[in-house]
Amino acid sequence: xxxxxxxxxxxxxxxxxxxxxxxxxxxxxxxxxxxxxxxxxxxxxxxxxxxxxxxxxxxxxxxxxxxxxxxxxxxxxxxxxxxxxxxxxxxxxxxxxxxxxxxxxxxxxxxxxxxxxxxxxxxxxxxxxxxxxxxxxx
Length: 138
Prior knowledge:
This protein has helices at about 50-55, 130-135, and strands at about 5, 15-20, 30-35, 80-85, 90-100, 105-115. By secondary structure, it is mainly beta. Strands 1, 2, 3, 4, 5 and 6 form a 6-stranded mixed sheet that branches. The mean pLDDT is about 95.
């Protein structure tokens, strides 16, 4: 099964594949073939989407920069499994084979990425560090 992450226009991240979601301390939260993760930063059920983006007026075209390069690679060899680790008050770290596909068909294929959870990144769906200035709390 191919691991894919699809940002939804003005909405959450749809994650599909052989996926495990981990807390910042490495504790397994969920293993599922499909999940919806908040990317507006306002869900009361973080890291999962609860529809808060609708009331908040979250706006994002769901395109994907194909030039994204991760700055801090994780040790180890990526696998066909996708491991998503929630960083405290920060991004989702993705480790494993994944295709991140935008609404317009743009796609980024790789094995390590940091995804925005605060809703403030100027490079959505990727994290640009904006969560620090925004005071994002997970």
